[in-house]
Amino acid sequence: GLTNDARLVLDTLRSAAKQGVIVSNYTRFEDAERRGDIWHCRVQDSLAGSTFEVRAKAVINATGPWSDKLPHSRTELRLTKGVHLVVDRRRLPVPDAVVLTEGNRILFAIPWGERVILGTTDTDYDGPIESPTCDAEDVRYILDVIATLFPDARITPSDVISTWSGLRPLVADRNGNPSDISRRHEIKMGEPGWWDITGGKLTTYRLMAEQAVDQVVARLGCNARPCRTAVEPLLPPEQCDGVSTIVPPEIGQAVVEHYTDREWAVHLDDVMIRRASWRYYHRNHLEIAESVAGWMGARLGWDDNACRAEFERYRRATEVAGPDHPVLKGPKCGSRVASVEVV
User: Fold this and answer.
1) Is residue 228 part of a domain?
2) Which among 14, 225, 293, 325 is most buried, taking Cβ atoms within 10 Å?
3) Measured at the alpha carbon of residue 271, what is the angle toward residues 266 and 274, in degrees to the nearest 5?
4) Distance between CA atoms of residues 251 and 290, nearest Å
């Protein structure tokens, strides 16, 4: 099966907000000081450029690949990179997910609507955490495996519609290859009231959350009800229809307004990349982005200069190592409303 990881994060946040949690997007933790039994945390609002203080009896550092960079963190990580490629399903018409082997590595070809996702890699990484890239070498590695097992498909880099890269924040172990490193998780209180949670996998994230909160509850002596995370859905189906799906939703103004009004989207790339995944699914994503920028602008009060700035920000975010990179040469941007056909 297939899970949309970005949608899983957003639906987890939406579920938390329903329970009264305050969600603050584009907010950066800068530092914290413990006074008595209270943590005084300095937090920056990246949109407003202002700094404010949050006070708490407990702080959980669950920042993934950034977790060892936070002040007070006691974590040690080994970051590994995983890359995925997206091709048209007509070029590789697999009916179901296919497991591919290459030495002791396992790769997959997974149907995704009218697309197929190919991947993934598992290599050590020491570059910028916020922008791991898919390199030509990554593309060649995956396509070589595909060529070995599906020689008649003749998939080439020109067939690649999009790529994405992610980082695995593994508990540090300098021995062995990246694929040999355990995906176990650790939850440790390094200072009174400060917990670091590291490692783990997407499939165990709710177990990790339950165990972390159980430790906090026990430490603070809270009179809490038994945890329900193992039996309670994040959201009811009616709150996901048309906006939170495995295959990207249809392109339209209504779904964009949902993302701005109910999912904290404030930039064009918030919608195109992390809410709707239209950037990864459609080859003509730049044309689509023009339409989305107009819809977002009408909702968020952008003038023409702001719309152009958002489009330029998005264009830069989706470039890969310059215009001559062999992967992801995007189409030229036009001014017409984007077509919604699958291309």
Assistant:
1) no
2) 293
3) 110
4) 12
CATH code of residue 200: 3.50.50.60
The reply to whether 13 and 66 lie within a common domain is yes
Are 258 and 337 contained in the same domain?
A: yes
pLDDT tens for the chain, 343 residues long, are 688 999 999 999 999 999 999 999 999 999 999 999 999 999 999 999 999 999 999 999 999 999 999 999 999 999 999 999 999 999 999 999 999 988 888 999 999 999 999 999 999 999 999 999 999 999 999 999 999 999 999 999 999 999 999 999 999 876 667 765 778 899 999 999 999 999 998 899 999 999 999 999 999 999 999 999 999 999 999 999 999 999 999 999 999 999 999 999 999 999 999 999 999 999 999 999 999 999 999 999 999 999 999 999 999 999 854 333 444 443 333 223 333 322 2
Same domain, 216 and 333: no
Residue 83 sits in the same domain as residue 160? yes
Q: Kindly state whether residues 127 and 187 are assigned to the same domain.
A: no
One domain, residues 49 and 192: yes
